[in-house]
Amino acid sequence: MFLRHVVIVILSLLAGVPLHAQEAIDASEYDSLQAAADAIPSAGGVLRIPAGKYEITQPLRIKTGDTRVVGDGTATHLINQNTDGQPAILIENPDFAGKTTPSKDRLWRVSIANLRVTGNDKSGAGIEARYIEEIFVHGVTSSYHGGDGVKLHYCYEDPRISNNLFTYNKQTGLQIEACHDIIVSANQFEENQDGVRCIDSFNLAMSGNNLDDHLGDGVVIENTYGSVVASNMIEECQGWAIVLDRDCYGTTMSANVIAHDFAGGIDLRDAHGCAISANTFTIVKNAAIAVREPSASITISANNFSDTWIGNDPAGKPLQKRDDEPSRTEQNPNEATGVLLQNCEAVVVSGNLFSKLVTESVREEGRCRSILISGNGEVSRDDSK
Q: How many Å apart are CA 119 and CA 373, to the nearest integer?
């Protein structure tokens, strides 16, 4: 009997047949989305939500691990009509509800994919996950919420957020709290309050995202160690493109395009051991990079700081994309700025190009110590060639 069982197992594996198939739940066969979610067995399964509009007034609660919730793209539309600050989708072990630091039996491997979720000014987050390990959110559109587009709270182990669209949320497009080994890749963020906030976390890898028109800052990283922010487009934020604060250290910001941000480009408010390299700062206001007290041990190299000058015509007249004439929203639409050092320590500024700025290339304010400025190039705003 034992031998027969072993043979069956081997043949099943060779044939690719699952020994214990997880249950697939079709939400259309239940009276409500919550009833369908409640039908997922404790071992996990797949909740399929067909195309359609689903109005909800309470969160859709996902309570099981090894679970995938999947729709038919944006044709599957969850509309959160709650006005008490509740999320549209809440992923949480019900045994942890109300607890602040559960220590074991967290849910693992929950995936939300291929659906649209919207809210209102008084609703909470689009998707809120609490203490979920290896969460994966992809192919989701999350918009118009009173809270965040997606909120991850203590989703410590390997959260992945990719190929999503976060737009017009009253708070942050993506809020990350106390997570570890985080992937944020190939998402689009449009006109949220802030684009991404990563707080009290470790090892954020953020690349290939597009952030545009935020009412606050583009990316805010606080009390987070060992991260990389690379190959992102961050444009026209009312605040700063990137902010590092509260004892950030060991972070690299490289190969980003930071364009036309109104408060400034990269603001190191409290950052240490960080590298800023190979970024393009174009028509960034106030300061393209600010290194403030108590920030220290910063390298700034191989970056390009420029206005919109695109060269001269044969007659020698400067050609520009933008006019210097004041507009309704900007006194100087073509303004470009450089590096501001304020009471900071141990900073290297080397191998950068500063082109046609309205400020000094590198400004020092207060008592700056151990500053090395060398090998930079400069094109004066008054130069026509």
A: 50
Q: What is the CA radius of gyration of the chain?
A: 25
Torsion angle (degrees, nearest 10) of CA 88, 91, 96, 98: -20
- Is position 118 within any domain? no
Residue that is written with structure tokens 């952030």 in the block: 211
Helices (H), the chain: 2-15, 33-38
For residues 251-287, b (16+ Cβ closer than 10 Å) or e, as one string? bbbbebbbbbbebbbbbbbbbbbbbbbbbbbbbbbbb
Per-position b or e across 156-180, b if 16+ CB within 10 A of its CB: bebbbbbebbbbbbbbbbbbbebbb
* CA gap 300, 239 in Å, rounded: 21
What is the Cβ-side half-sphere exposure of residue 179, based on CA atoms within 13 angstroms? 30
Backbone angles phi, psi at 121, to 5 degrees: -60, -25
Is the distance from CB of 348 to CB of 301 less than 8 angstroms? Answer: yes
Does residue 36 fall inside a structural domain? no
**CA 350: distance to chain centroid?**
29
Q: Which residues pair with 318 in a beta bridge?
A: 312
The CATH number of the domain holding residue 278 is 2.160.20.10
Task: Report yes or no on 219 lying in a domain.
Answer: yes
Closest by CA position to 240, among listed 215, 218, 271, 268: 218
Taking only the tens place, the pLDDT of each residue in 58-114 is 999 999 999 999 999 999 999 999 999 999 999 999 887 766 666 667 899 999 999
Q: How far apart are CA 58 and CA 81, in angstroms?
A: 8
Q: Residue 72: is it exposed, middle or buried by C-beta count within 10 angstroms (0-12/13-18/19+)?
A: middle
What single-letter DSSP state applies at residue 21?
P
Assess if residue 298 is contained within a domain: yes
Residue 309: which of 338, 278, 335 has the closest Cα?
335
Predicted confidence (pLDDT) per residue in 287-310, tens digit: 999 999 999 999 999 999 999 888
Count of domains forming the chain: 1
Are the CB atoms for 283 and 261 separated by under 8 Å? no
Q: What angle do CA 134, 45, 155 make, to 5 degrees?
A: 20
Range of the domain at 323: 193-385
Overall pTM > 0.85? yes
